[in-house]
Amino acid sequence: MAWLSSRVTSAGRGNEAGLATNSVDNRPIQLLLVEDNPADVRLLRELLKEISGSSFVLTVAPRMSEAQARLAAESFDVVVTDLSLPDSRDLSSFRELRSVAPTVPVIVLSGLDDESLAVSAVREGAQDYLFKTGLDAHILGRSIRHAIERHVAEQKLVRSEAFYHSLVEHLPQNIFRKDLDERFTFANQRFCQLLDKSLDDIIGRTDFDFYPPALAGKYQEDDREVIRTGKIFETIEENVAPDGETMYVQVVKTPIRDAKGKVLGTQCIFWDITAQKRFEQQLQRKNEALAASEAALRKSNEDLKSAQLQLIQAEKMESIGTLAAGVAHEVKNPLAIMQMGVNYLSKKVPAGEESIAMVLQEMREAITRADSITRGLLDFAASKQLAVKPEDFNQLISDTLKMVRHELHKKRIELVKELADKLPKVAVEKTQIQQVFVNIFVNAVHAMPEGGTLTVRTFARQMTGTTHSEGSRSSAHLWMGDTVVVAEVEDTGTGIPQEHLVKIFDPFFTTKPTGVGTGLGLPVSRKIVELHGGTIDIKNKPDGQGVRVTVQLQVRRENS
Amino acid sequence: MTKKRILLVDDEKSLTTLLKLNLEETGSYDVRVENWPEDALAAAREFKPDLILLDIIMPRMPGGNVAAQIDNDPALKGTPIVFLTAAVRKWQVEDNDGIICEHPCLAKPASVEEVIAMIEKHARK
Which residues of B touch A474 (CB under 8 A)? Predict the structure, then answer.
């Protein structure tokens, strides 16, 4: 601090141990004396020397103009000023000093005749006033020290207040305080802007002045909770904005206490966390979608496996069935011929030729046995691989519809049931045929993503033609004269493009997204229906409004 | 007593031969065989049968069509037709009281006695 020593003009440096000359450190106090009266200057200089425990660097400015110049150029710890100067008088002297150095403490020197003026100066921010008459070193020293200390404390306070003010006003949060009667005692600018009110319009009012009664009541209830428990209250409020969007607000309320800990009111800080909440919700939705698609993928994988197994099983059974039925059918005619032949010959047996009659009888029995074997083969081909039982067809359809009830409801699809009374029973393996109808119904639902009508119709009729495929006289099909029970399932979807119609029974042909369709539903369904000796047919409806699936199943006696 | 005239239409030659033999053996029937379904109508017009035994699954023309031709022919209208076929099974015939597509039906293999019973039941008296 070399510069300080050069400034020591009126007092030696304080030598006493622990001498505090300045609240910040123990350097000499820089004092500006604004005084035009040389006698007063002398007096002050003498008094300063007498002040124990402090040393001063005294600078004298006889005019206001000079004092202002000094204050602008140099740094002072305290200013002592007379209020009657050649170029300035009364309070204006003080004001001019303050305007140049608002942060330097000022002590006013006063004559006995103008105390009221001095008091006014103190009101405007002067630290103290002193009477020139009777002034002694003790009073002067104490006044200067107090002025400096108090001023330092005030500056600290100002800085601290500026700090907190800046925090409260510049944080992106809404902050307010209320007293115990729920009246606002403070609101930061952000909150004022939120309410679109000035601070003055908020102070003294309550939530009921700004919010709908239900909301205001809830806010006050939260406040009372804080007052009652004396504990911090945190919540996330959901508010519906006028545009219908849900807004999320994080709220923290804490009690305000006095020095003794008594609760005086509440303070609240809240801020919009809608964006954050939205993001969280999006994340959660994505997570759920991911989990769902994973589950769907797993399920479709399992479906695919099971469908493949079914297809393989169905193929095997059909091969066996086709072979058995083919053999049986082709053997039937030769057997009939042999039967006729034996029949004819047995009438031509000459009398007494017992052995010939016996041979013919043996042949007749062999033919009967062969015939029963062909019948057995045909039965095996038709149904023995399936655990068929006579089933109420309408009941079966209704039970199956229950399985897809949820899907129908979800897609807002109306269900129309036109089930014929007194249908003959069908010999089917219920679970297999149900699987067929689940496939059909689910396809119909998929064809109507925007909703529609699902019509399910049942009736019985007699076949007027024979269904059989080209090149095969014997694969499973319906014969002319069979009584069949028919189910027609109609949707009101967009129909099937012509180029797809020919492929819909091809294994692995699908128009559905991966994971939704396996391309095996219809091929497997057809296998199952054909194994039951029935038919399945899919056509676009004549009116072009959707698809009609027709399933025909044989009616037969249980013991045939 | 005049013999009943039976027209037998079936592509299976051995079967027609033996059934003809068996039926004529009884002495009650005069049987004409036609193995080609498309010739059945002409044969019927010429033979004027009291009953036609008709197979269903035959090459080139199913029995159902032959039956329709005969039903629609003014001269032959009302001629009784009995289907004799492997295309139906015995229980299917029974389920329908022996009538399939408006005609009686006999499932193969049928014994001679069954065929005769059917003829006696349905042939023009």
Answer: none
